Please model this.
Amino acid sequence: MKRVKITVVRKIHHADLSALYENPIEHACEMHEGDTFVSENGMKPEGLCGSAWQSMQSFVSELARGGGNFYDGWMKNPRSAMISCNDGFRPVSYLIETIEEE
Model:
């Protein structure tokens, strides 16, 4: 199986939505822009947010098996995908891409 790199590329906080609908919580998201993780054998890397993993797991698994080209040419690099976690208050965007072994 191929290794898959997961990079945090953007983290946003919709403070207005949080103020309207969310109960205050501490440590809502521990991901930071620039954080990288590597999935081995299609498995969740240690330290990666579990909620984010649920959003990207099928894409990571497909890339790990050598697949790609999601949605018939969605991404410029067919061996990649841009996936966001499902937190509507603090969405985090992740670039997932196959690591090409030399």
Observations:
- The chain has one domain: 4-98.
- Strands lie at 4-11, 36-39, 80-84, 92-98.
- Residues 50-64 form the longest helix (15 residues).
- The two ends are 14 Å apart (CA to CA).
